[in-house]
Specification:
The structure holds 2 protein chains of 2 kinds. Chain A is of the alpha/beta class. Chain A folds into 2 domains: 123 residues, Oxidized Rhodanese, domain 1 (3-Layer(aba) Sandwich), CATH 3.40.250; 121 residues, Rhodanese-like domain (Oxidized Rhodanese, domain 1). Helix content of chain A is 29%, strand content 12%. The chains are: A alpha/beta, B mainly alpha.
Chain lengths: 294, 157
Amino acid sequence: MSETALSAPIASRGYARPEALVSTDWVEQHLHDSDVRIIESNEDSLLYPFGHIQGAVQVDWALDLNDQVRRDYLDRASFEKLMSRIGVTRDMTVVFYGDKSNWWATYAFWVFQLFGHTKAKVMDGGRLKWEKEKRPMTREHPSYEATSYTSPERDDARIRAFRDEVMSHIRAHKKLVDVRSPQEFSGERTHMPEYPQEGVLRGGHIPGAKNVPWARAANPEDGTFKDAAALRAIYEGEIGMRPTDDIIAYCRIGERSSHTWFVLTYLLGYTQVRNYDGSWTEWGNAVGMPIEKP
Amino acid sequence: MSEQAALPAPLAGLVGEFEAVDRALRAEMLIDYADRFESVPAAVAMRPYPEQNRAPRCESEAYVFATDQADGTLRYWFAVENPQGLSAKAWAMIMDETLSGQPLEDIVRVPQSVVFSIFGRDVSMGKGQGLIGMLECVQHEARRRLDQRRRSAPPLE
């Protein structure tokens, strides 16, 4: 089994932190590595039971990562329970993969970083690439002995932005990247094309934000990330970002923007990137928020 | 579900089964349907499939076709172009097995909420809308035949 010809080796792509990515080859070579836990995270909850990488566990973005009552992420106790259930210790390396060019995998990766589980990687290309390479999949659900996992409190300060912080950010004329579709950015739509027009009362974007749809960072043929030069051409060449800029990324609920957060932070080495998970469903519904709309 | 009484009997029975199981068993049942999915035969439709048969809002690129049967009912056929479109395949099989051969008047009354009765309330927004789009295509075919019959019926005395 070999990598698809489309993607150059990760080490040759010029990434700032290439260790955050692993190839499908690497994952296949570590299927039985007891220090590695492979985690699948998808939008479509049927994909994992239909077939997954041998030994992989599922982390469901809605059921496992979100608080089930209020709009927030799981707390420390729930994260510890999750890690215990999927048999992960603080020393183990977790490797995320999933559907839609790793959109949901990077979302799970981002939530794990709120709890400081830094031994984390993303499998380049995700589920699409693994399947295209006809690598083995199974329907067997793995069973791991429950672990004792002690997590620090969730740290929202470093990589998560809240509404008031976004307001201060725009007053200070700092950089914002809106990773939604151009139609959502312009206010023509309040959700992605083909998705229902619901959930947000106003269309448009946060004043000063630049629009770079998240999926531009990935190669649609196999879901791999574009190389650093191509990414720089987009984020630096087109919208003038710099690695030391203080940047907030947002979308509709913070999942697509976690993909961009991953790209800027790990692949381009930007040092101050936060994800505003309240995103447009909070900003576009809140009373009196400034909105830019052509 | 409250609208269950309005559903064609085979679909009502299946909805009852899905509503009685937990999330894991629901997934197993749906995968079983997806496994049995067979694409529309070439005798009915060939690629490239007509855009007019494409289900709106469906990311899995599903197409819906209908052929007339001798008893005035329809046999439904489906194509799902995205190989990862498991939910669309499962839903296609379910609609084939529970709506093909059913009275057209009953098919047009099937509520969109049936998608959530079968796939669960936690189905993502995009996926739910795509599945509803497939149901809309199925109902469009039934409605079209009903309209044709209405137009060709002799005027009342």
